[in-house]
Amino acid sequence: MEFQMRLSRYLITAFFLLFPISSAFAADGLDTGDTAWMIVATALVMVMTPAGLALFYGGMSRYKNLLNTYAMTFVAYCLGSVIWVMWGYTLAFGPDLAGVVGGLDNAFLRGIGVDSLSGTIPTLVFVVFQMTFAAITVALVLGSVVDRMKFSAWIVFTILWLTFIYSPIAHWVWGGGWMAEMGALDFAGGTVVHINAGVAGLVLSYSLGKRIGYGKTPMFPSSVSLTALGAALLWFGWFGFNAGSELAADGIAASAFLVTNTSAAMGALGWMFAEWLINKKPTLLGIASGVVAGLVAITPAAGFVGLGSSLLIGLIAGVLGFFSVAILKKKIGYDDSLDAFGVHGMCGIWGALATGLFANPAINEIGTGLFFGNPGQVAIQAISIVGTIVYTAIGTLIVIFITKALTGGLRVSEEDEILGLDSAIHGERAFEIEP
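^ thats the sequence. predicted structure below, dont judge the formating
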């Protein structure tokens, strides 16, 4: 018996020497599975901006401004990449200062090394993951102002907006700020990304004024095919956007993955049938836009709701997106070129409210919504929505004022706008068609 016990101890010791215990089982250590997933998720979100969004927006812009739309999307990603590691990250996730913004302790990623951890993943991976969110958020604003904004003004606006608008709001929600303390739920960016970008786009479009000929001259998309391809790439990347926001390879990430796909599909169907009923034509542009509407709406709720809720969230988002673009915009009379506010702003608001309605503690114990016994969550979500709208609107106006002062105005000349920004600014043309 003593021999067997001794042999068992030897075998157990040998096992752990030959096969060290995985960090996945360490309470606070690095988890290689989570890390691998987050590197993949980060790459997926990266693809969303210079590929997915550039194609989606580029195809909807007029042929003479397609390359300008691409260029402004690309430069937004490049600027976001640099600003984030220099000072954006620390403003968003640095030590909390009165619930409003992060401190400058981690400027230029000071104090963050290869062994630094955020939960079970390297902090450097978390930094890059969050950087992709910052970059796509400011790029989304572009959809409201294509065809008429100066390239130099866009660069200055991007730098200022990421610094003074995006980073503080990211801190409020995800960095330990006042919205987080209040208990606001935003799994992957309903307030931080979509309401924020949509409201900023609306304010910027009003400041720039309408395009020459808007409402009088037909303004056809340069390529609906490119837009549809861009929507598909956004859909693909959004799995990293939403499921990656769990920051772990677990059941909540799997659920977020599932409901993201379901809501996108229902958004497409909702927009398609609404358009078919009202305009008698189910357009591919509408279907692609519906996909994005469904993705936007599920984003804040992705880690909190189940399958049934995602079906309803996506369906309402598709119908709401169509209504906002086809009816609301005409009634109010603003020129939101590619409907950044109509899709991201309006569907982001719906998604944030829906989170307060449908958050299911059986999915994620962090959130409990109205239909699961917590009516107060709806009020908290409403406060977070209003807070984001007010701060973004006022802050964006200030950023616009400073940008105007630094660049001599936001808008291109009338001559350049008529000629097209591809030729006037970049000296290029998107299409070379020989006779």
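Strands lie at 96-97, 101-102, 117-118, 121-122.
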